[in-house]
Amino acid sequence: MLESNKDSAKLDAMKRIVGMIAKGKNASELFPAVVKNVASKNIEIKKLVYVYLVRYAEEQQDLALLSISTFQRALKDPNQLIRASALRVLSSIRVPIIVPIMMLAIKEASADLSPYVRKNAAHAIQKLYSLDPEQKEMLIEVIEKLLKDKSTLVAGSVVMAFEEVCPDRIDLIHKNYRKLCNLLVDVEEWGQVVIIHMLTRYARTQFVSPWKEDDGLEDNEKNFYESDDEQKEKTDQRKKPYTMDPDHRLLIRNTKPLLQSRNAAVVMAVAQLYWHISPKSEVGIISKSLVRLLRSNREVQYIVLQNIATMSIQRKGMFEPYLKSFYVRSTDPTMIKTLKLEILTNLANEANISTLLREFQTYVKSQDKQFAAATIQTIGRCATNISEVTDTCLNGLVCLLSNRDEIVVAESVVVIKKLLQMQPAQHGEIIKHMAKLLDSITVPVARASILWLIGENCERVPKIAPDVLRKMAKSFTSEDDLVKLQILNLGAKLYLTNSRQTKLLTQYILNLGKYDQNYDIRDRTRFIRQLIVPNEKSGALSKYAKKIFLAQKPAPLLESPFKDRDHFQLGTLSHTLNTKANGYLELSNWPEVAPDPSVRNVEIIELAKEWTPAGKTKKDNAAKKFYSESEEEEDSSDSSSDSESESESASGEQDEEGGSSDDSSEDSSSEHRSDSESASEVGDKRTAKRNSKSNGKSDSEDGEKENEKSKTSDSFSADSGSEEESSSGSESESESEFESRKVAKEKEKNKTKQDRNPLTKDVSLLDLDDFNPVSTPVAFPTPALSPSLIADLEGLNLSTSSSVISVNTPVFVPVKTHVLLHRMSGRGLAAHYFFPRQPCIFGDKMVSIQITLNNTTDRKIENIHIGGKKLPMGMQMHVFNPIESLEPEGSITVSVGIDFCDSTQTASFQLCTKDDCFNVNIQPPVGELLLPVTMSEKDFKKEQGMLTGMNETSTVIIAAPQNFTPSVILQKVVNVANVGVVPSGQDNIHRFAAKTVHSGSLMLVTVELKEGSTAQLIINTERTVIGSVLLRELKPVLSQG
């Protein structure tokens, strides 16, 4: 089939071969026949050939080398999957002679427009380094370049390469630290694990310890010798509160949402990060997430329980509320049962020990004998750790001595022996009882323990001990070696304390031991004979024989086997094995003084000089149009890298990531970017940042926004409008202009030549908006209102078509309200909010929210206002003006605007009155982060064709046929999401379109009805995270009746 001239036959053959590989069968014999098809023009065949070659290229190196020219040509292929696959095959041929070719291919791929190819370049770095470590310096240069990449697809892979090649080069991370923190939520799951572990090591080298509890004692000792003034000064210094580095806080805050990840490895990585670098008061939040993982499969449970066992030794309080989660189930495997026992022992205290002992009584009856023995050891540890229950545990263990199961009895004897060492004088009766058990117990360890106990307490049981020795002498030759050694010891101790009765018996035992087959027993016999039976050859030690044999023995310390594991990083293989594994990177100690935090600042001063000041006239900007398109493209790329380097806001970082990844597939759009817009807007942005930094107070933002609002109203009257527009009509059109490539192109044309013909229906709006970039006020920083360069770049990436995509009025506005503050929690003040689905008047990137406040008391509530805000990085909020008073039973509706940065993260803030402040939060449904847009069916298909592959998610819906009528589908979709209806020429296909409020990325929804009662739901968008969330919300709604 592989030799066939028909592509269909070859494709079928390749599918079968790849299927064989997937099942683990050997297909290496087919290598010569497969490698011939590497130059096939059929893309599907070529993909499967590359999959095969990646698997077998290392085994069949000679044959693979014959096709190396084909791989090199494929590196230039227009299809990104072919380019990536060729690089994977090339890096899989592990022959030193092609190292230069691999190095060149990696360098070219690291600059590829496709983030998928760049990701594979990062993977190839590790393979090349393992093949030729001498290439390290050149590979570090590539890693440094890829670390600056803004794509979430690349971030995890390049950090993995960094950890493999140069984990000690922390300096490469400095400039990218904030970017990695902000991109972390959007990186794929295994990339998140790698990045979190790397950032944990980074934090331990760059920040001071947040654990300051243990410093007090040392200071007090020093202060004793100092004068009162010096002591007072030092005390003040010691009491000075610890202030956390903002970058340290950024890492802790941005990893917190990942505790809800579906991937257990991600949750475990975040848990170890919190354990190793967060303040001790904040570590507690990881306990609930770790307990949640106990519902996973047994392998995951094993790793999680090992880490909980280590944590619970130091921080019992973290897991005490979840005590019942560690109760043993009958279906648990033995390894899980013993780990749960370990944790229950660590969590035991005076308050819960009675409950735990009742639980342990049940475990002792288990059919799993290994688990029952472990339970008895656990009871012994509890008796040691908690003195109040020592006697209770001891009595319970004595009762177990009458158990029918020999293993339970033997383990009880061993544990009782350890407990009796702590207070031997009080338990003579127990020793007598155990001596009687020698006739029935056959387990060597238990017999040896009883003999040792009798020997140690031979003076307390003078009548029983000689008789026990007599019985043991009879069975000496048939005993286990461990028991024989204890018989010898017992004979020696009785010879020294009661030689009249036991002298001959001891000599008989010594004679038996002298000719034993085991050399340890023979040696012990000779040693004891010389020590206790004095003769002319005896040394000076024989005088001290009694002191040697009957010395006071220290009580054994029953400790957790996990006590010494805390020096390994949690969640690592080394921690699991309790030994240092190959490749393990130790966590460094906290530095005494924090290194310079400015190394993480991204410098933008030099690039700022290249930009045209915001006050330049249109003539100057128009003059730039005489440059070639390639230079314009370079300028726009410089502007994107410049603005992307500013890592103060998370929204900026997220938008930049989207912009850069979009450029990989739609690079032609940068040619249409207006240099004048770039210059003026970036100038405004920097001026705003400088002003905001000089003010240095986040609390003054609201006041500045109010000033800006008044200024913009004046500028509107002077026909020099700002970016904020009051009328809903002009606002909706201006938003579409920022997001549509065609409109952006028309804006350029209007700046250079007023009589150029734009689209007729948008002439007046384009002309009106033409003045905006020039006259944007510079003196008032308004990051929430003025559009950034990144937003424009993302808007330009949405489409290369000549269509107009404009914001439309919502098709449907749901009346559902959400509780913001319950009247009981708010002491009579109740608050509800809902989403009116209208463009926000406070900023074109904000979601409009209406809050209804009700006074349910019989008194007046005064000064209702928004207090402190705890917003995620990049999120911004425009608050309502304070309400002086709200009459009893009165109600008032106010509007706020929140820039959610195209995410469903919660906006937390305080709703305050004159007397109280209440913590409230708003979490938007994903459907409310959209604005409906209108477009033709042709434009929809064109945009959809550009948003395929990784930008497309789909699912199959099953429902009754009556639920698939056009009216029902329309009602269900618009009820969930604020989307516009796109006309469709086919009855079985329903199309909807919207754009995200913050970045303006298109969101295309298609419901295609299939035969029977099934339909396919397809969502195309650059914002894949929002797209997948929307898909999950739409699927159950469309499925139900």
TrEMBL record:
Cross-referenced InterPro entries: AP3_beta, AP3B1/2_C, AP3B1_Ser, AP3B_C, AP_beta, ARM-like, ARM-type_fold, B-adaptin_app_sub_C
Annotated region (Disordered), positions in chain: 218-243, 616-761
Keyword Manganese: no
Membrane topology reported for the UniProt record: Peripheral membrane protein
Keyword list, A-Z: Cytoplasmic vesicle, Golgi apparatus, Membrane, Phosphoprotein, Protein transport, Transport
Cited SMART domains: AP3B1_C, B2-adapt-app_C
Biased composition (Acidic residues): 629-668, 721-737
Bias (Basic and acidic residues) ranges: 218-239, 617-628, 669-686, 696-712, 738-759
Domain of life: Eukaryota
Main location: membrane
AP-3 complex subunit beta C-terminal domain boundaries: 758-905
GO biological process: intracellular protein transport; vesicle-mediated transport
Domain Beta-adaptin appendage C-terminal subdomain: 929-1039
Record GO cellular component, one term: clathrin-coated vesicle membrane
Subcellular location(s) of the protein: Cytoplasmic vesicle, Clathrin-coated vesicle membrane; Golgi apparatus
Keyword NADP: no
Any single Pfam family the record assigns to this protein: Adaptin_N
Function: Subunit of non-clathrin- and clathrin-associated adaptor protein complex 3 (AP-3) that plays a role in protein sorting in the late-Golgi/trans-Golgi network (TGN) and/or endosomes. The AP complexes mediate both the recruitment of clathrin to membranes and the recognition of sorting signals within the cytosolic tails of transmembrane cargo molecules. AP-3 appears to be involved in the sorting of a subset of transmembrane proteins targeted to lysosomes and lysosome-related organelles.
Stated family: Belongs to the adaptor complexes large subunit family.
The protein's name: AP-3 complex subunit beta
Gene expressing this chain: AP3B1
